[in-house]
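anyone seen this seq b4? input:
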Amino acid sequence: MIKQLMDKIEKTKAPVCIGLDPMLSYVPEHILAKSFEAFGETLEGAAEAVWQFNREIVDCTYDLIPAVKPQIAMYEQFGIEGLKAYQKTVDYCHEKGLVVIGDAKRGDIGSTSAAYAAGHLGKVVVGGKSYAGFGTDFLTVNPYLGTDGVKPFVDVCKAEDKGIFVLVKTSNPSSGEFQDKLIDGKPLYELVADKVVEWGESTMEGDYSNVGAVVGATYPEMSRILRKRMPHIYFLVPGYGAQGGTAEDLKCCFNPDGFGAIVNSSRGIIAAYKKEAYAKFGPEHFGEASRQAVMDMAADINRVL
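predicted toks r here
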């Protein structure tokens, strides 16, 4: 699967991932009004608005990007109706030829972790048949429970040609409360990085593994250390733009071959029409604003690579 992602990055010349993390406050009024007219101010109406919002953004950007990353929490908040919108979004992105990275940060032990892996990446057996659940291509995984919590995902990656991105050094301000703590003289994020390399050795596709790492753009010095420590691990990089990460901060996440990282932007793209730089598009043309934001982001990253 990592080879498919790399091929799409090379084709688009854009190591960019759109985070499809819709809040109702991002959805323009005309979409909300139409959805509420059809379904009322209900969970179903909210989910319909989110789905229509996503679809227009995808329609306006799919030819520019290799991947999307829907954050499942933004859909779960609307209950079952929200999860239906999540599934429709995943399926539609696949129809458009996009790689889908499910951002669910799952991780447990034993049969629970195996069930998460089957539901998001693999298949579940029902009687004499097997079915894919959400059917994403990659999934973000929390490694806090250790190998017991990660191995079921790695097993599914090998069986189904799928991938995962393991949280190593995240972009949020309080990440250091645990991730930077020293253990035997090393920060915890380095120890997790070493395990990611170990977990990824059995899932190599050429120069890179199907087991990747989440490494935030907001800590470039740490990213530089991790890039050297994990030369064959692909990075999913949050934190660009709205969280303060710059293109210069991102450069150390990439390898000399120009690969090694894909950079996520969520509200900086999906809510671009709300920013002064793209205000000229207006709410009615929010998808076009997102398209311009993608082009600007790709140019900004390529400028420093």
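The first strand starts at residue 16 and ends at 18. The domain at 2-304 is CATH 3.20.20.70 (TIM Barrel). kinda curious what u guys think
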